[in-house]
């Protein structure tokens, strides 16, 4: 009997309802509260599953919106930087145009003065035909040659105001300008280069010929001192007055050569004047173009 009592526990204890509760609570992402109730009475078991809502867990929509917001922020920053850079370049281009506009006005003013100088030179040198007849008749009647020498021994060439052109070339400024503006500037600059090439080749050659032949026929003591005047462009040429007969030699071949070279000099001077007129017309056209386009005063 006693052994049976040991092997068989008191059945009255079995009649007491037992509730076994297993709870797991962790404050970690993805954890859940699992509650198991074992109710022996009636052999029923209840399992309660409580989902823990994890606010840190993200679905694909959340990642998509975050990516979209980040992309928009970066893109807007890029647009703002691009607009700022574009404005800076536009302002710089306008500065180039304003500077060039002032250079063009300076160019036209100097061309006007040089044109007056060339007109006076050509008008004076056109007297060489009558002078030639006079000298050949009397080799000592050379006073008329003074005017010819004055207007054939010196020249004033046109120098372009190129401060803006140098900036455009050295700083890569042409890329900032519109195509029409850049092309118009290049055409103007090429016209000046053509003029400069004419000056350093054809004109200079004619100038040297006249000077060299004159040195062979002119008497040193007959040449008057230089006239230093401020009201004309002949300030660095000899005066009109000769101290006696000019010719050191009566070699008519050399005298004839000098007059022939003088005739060629007049023609190239006229060509120089025409080239300047073309540059002036182009400069005036550009001034009007920029004035209308950019509303300059």
What does it look like?
- The protein has 297 residues and is mainly alpha-helical.
- The chain contains eight helices and three strands; from the N terminus they run ααβββαααααα.
- The chain has a three-stranded antiparallel β-sheet with strand order 1-2-3, with no helix packed on it.
- A hairpin with an 8-residue loop joins strand 1 (19-24) and strand 2.
- The longest helix is centred in the first third of the chain and has 66 residues, at 60-125.
- Mean pLDDT is 79; it is low at 1-6, 11-45 and 226-238.
| Helix/strand order, N-terminal first | HHEEEHHHHHH
Largest beta-sheet details: 3 strands, antiparallel
**End-to-end Cα distance:** 130 Å
What is the assembly state of the chains in this entry?
single chain
Helix content: 55-70%
Number of domains as seen in the coordinates:
2
Record keyword descriptors for this entry.
7% strand, disordered N terminus, rod-shaped, 61% helix, 2 domains, 297 residues, mainly alpha, three-stranded antiparallel beta sheet
List the helices and strands and how they pair.
Layout: H1 2-7, H2 11-14, E1 19-24, E2 33-39, E3 44-50, H3 60-125, H4 128-137, H5 145-150, H6 163-170, H7 179-217, H8 252-294
Antiparallel strand pairs: 1-2, 2-3
């Amino acid at each position: 009997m006693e052994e049976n009592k040991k092997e068989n526990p008191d059945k009255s204890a079995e009649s007491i309802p037992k509730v076994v509760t297993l709870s797991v609570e962790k404050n970690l992402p993805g954890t859940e509260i699992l509650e198991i109730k074992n109710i022996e009475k009636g052999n029923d078991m209840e399992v309660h599953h409580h989902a823990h809502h994890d606010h840190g867990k993200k679905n694909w929509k959340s990642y998509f919106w975050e990516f979209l917001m980040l992309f928009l922020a970066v893109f807007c920053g890029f647009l703002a930087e691009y607009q700022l850079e574009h404005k800076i370049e536009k302002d710089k281009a306008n500065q180039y145009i304003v500077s060039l506009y002032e250079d063009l006005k300076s160019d036209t003013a100097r061309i006007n003065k040089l044109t007056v100088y060339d007109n006076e030179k050509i008008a004076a040198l056109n007297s060489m035909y009558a002078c030639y007849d006079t000298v050949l008749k009397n080799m000592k009647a050379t006073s008329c040659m003074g005017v010819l020498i004055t207007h054939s021994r010196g020249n004033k060439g046109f120098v372009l105001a190129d401060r803006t052109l140098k900036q455009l070339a050295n700083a890569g400024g042409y890329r900032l300008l519109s195509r029409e503006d850049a092309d118009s500037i290049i055409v103007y600059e090429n016209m000046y280069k053509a003029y400069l090439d004419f000056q350093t080749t054809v004109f200079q050659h004619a100038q040297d010929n006249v000077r060299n032949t004159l040195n062979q026929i002119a008497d040193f003591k007959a040449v008057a001192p230089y006239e230093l005047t401020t009201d004309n462009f002949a300030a660095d040429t000899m005066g009109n007055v000769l101290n006696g007969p000019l010719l050191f030699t009566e070699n008519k071949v050399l005298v004839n050569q000098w007059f022939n070279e003088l005739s060629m000099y007049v023609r190239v001077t006229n060509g120089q004047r025409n080239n300047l007129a073309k540059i002036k017309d182009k400069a005036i056209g550009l001034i009007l173009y920029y004035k209308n386009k950019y509303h300059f005063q």
